[in-house]
Amino acid sequence: xxxxxxxxxxxxxxxxxxxxxxxxxxxxxxxxxxxxxxxxxxxxxxxxxxxxxxxxxxxxxxxxxxxxxxxxxxxxxxxxxxxxxxxxxxxxxxxxxxxxxxxxxxxxxxxxxxxxxxxxxxxxxxxxxxxxxxxxxxxxxxxxxxxxxxxxxxxxxxxxxxxxxxxxxxxxxxxxxxxxxxxxxxxxxxxxxxxxxxxxxxxxxxxxxxxxxxxxxxxxxxxxxxxxxxxxxxxxxxxxxxxxxxxxxxxxxxxxxxxxxxxxxxxxxxxxxxxxxxxxxxxxxxxxxxxxxxxxxxxxxxxxxxxxxxxxxxxxxxxxxxxxxxxxxxxxxxxxxxxxxxxxxxxxxxxxxxxxxxxxxxxxxxxxxxxxxxxxxxxxxxxxxxxxxxxxxxxxxxxxxxxxxxxxxxxxxxxxxxxxxxxxxxxxxxxxxxxxxxxxxxxxxxxxxxxxxxxxx
Length: 457
Ligand code: F0G
Fold this sequence. Notes:
457 residues, alpha/beta, binds ligand F0G
């Protein structure tokens, strides 16, 4: 098989530089050893997130110039709405400034304290929005999804039996809707099969519970379905996405992922009563329903981006870049979550640094070592981000300590990935020298963003 090439060439460049090792050490110390506090220009390869960090196509830049900035009923809104309806066939469309704004409106209007929302795995903003109104966010990921070394095609699936149990235990009245997140970001960017979406829908429907899809990476999920569910090998990604959304009563979306845009999101639903409540809160929080916190030009860009994300050649290339890194890690014996996800490679930092206890935060040690070695910025998804406290106030580590290398869309080329492999290899060979970290300052909520660390001697 021939090399999968980037299905684009580069028309505009943005400089990146690798500051010296001494400067990187100094920058990290100044950032209190927390890469969230670094200046972006001090990062050479920035894999902190795939959210809003993608490169726009010539078609998107051209569409941007067509932005109709009318307050109400703009041309750009009509394009935005009709594109979303073409993909989802869902009746009511509300633009939001990003995904969490859609989650906020959904949670504020539909949830009461004590309600229970099952999902395969909630993303942290989804969980936070649910918990903020006093409801409970439950993760019902399938057993394979928790086994980082197991190779299986759809490790993002929900455990349908657990869903049945959840409904039996809490009762339909306590569950205003169920969710499914495609792909499952928190669980390694693993996809959900169409069979699983159908099964989840069937269970929810039996109990008259609506299904809400967290659709951030719907196009990547459609690609995995195309590749791994034989029934879909002759379907287009658009047709697959259309079937996925046919099971949804509503969806939340961050267009910063598979909208291939730098900002934007939406909330959609079929139920007229929900729509009425969404609309009223949207006007209060985001803006008039035909722009919802976005400029007309953003609506244009998203309308083009949603369709580009469903381009098969684009998804083949995108998946090839993620797989390329996975294959190189495999050869080096570096532990990572298998198979590689749709938007990221997740290193298993607990297995990478077995000399560190979970509460010495191996994820932070690895993230910081990657930065010092090559100016690579990654993110810890482990005991700092998800650690909890027991009844006595003692810190309890997260089930897994991972480091996510998220791939911005259409941004880095193969040589960037070759460089990344060299950096990981260097860090891997010197792993026994990587120190643990302790936290010297932390805020009350979402501590990972702003806490300070100190390396241990
Ligand atoms: N749902 C999922 C599955 C996500 O991954 C994200 C964002 C959101 C909802 C919220 O969307 O950022 O537009 O408000 N994930 C980013 C990440 C931040 O780095 O994984 P948003």
